[in-house]
Structure formats: C-alpha cells, structure tokens
Amino acid sequence: MNAIRTWRKQRDLTQEQMADLLGVSASSLSRMERGEQWPDRGFFEKLISVTDGAVTANDFLCIDQREEAA
Questions:
Q1: What is the mean pLDDT of the chain?
Q2: Does domain 3-69 have CATH number 1.10.260.40?
Q3: What is the mean pLDDT of residues 47-66?
Q4: Taking the domains of the chain in order of start, what are their residue ranges?
C-alpha cells in the first residue's frame, strides 16, 4: 500500500483532510496515492514535515535503505 495512504489511514484522516495538511487538492492526493502523479520537491518537503519524517521521497521511489546498506 502507498506510504501516504497507510500513514493517513493509521491516523483516521480522510483524503480531504490530508490534502489540506499538505496544501494540495484531494484529487491530486488521490492520484499520488495511486502512483499516477509525481509530487514536486515542495510537496515532499511538506510531506516530511506533516508526517514528522515518517513518509519521505524514498517511499515513492521504493528505496529500502536497509537493502542498500547490505
């Protein structure tokens, strides 16, 4: 599942509520959660701030830093 959606659902936030926190439209957030839209740098900065670093750009790139270190 998409990292944004997982974080959002764990906190019982709707797409509209999360979109407001991130400063994007709910439809844009929906496309991002489905992998149909790539966020810009400003979005990632806001995402890291809103989620206290729990969701980062690496989550979009599917980079597992544990695997890279091995």
A1: 87
A2: yes
A3: 82
A4: 3-69
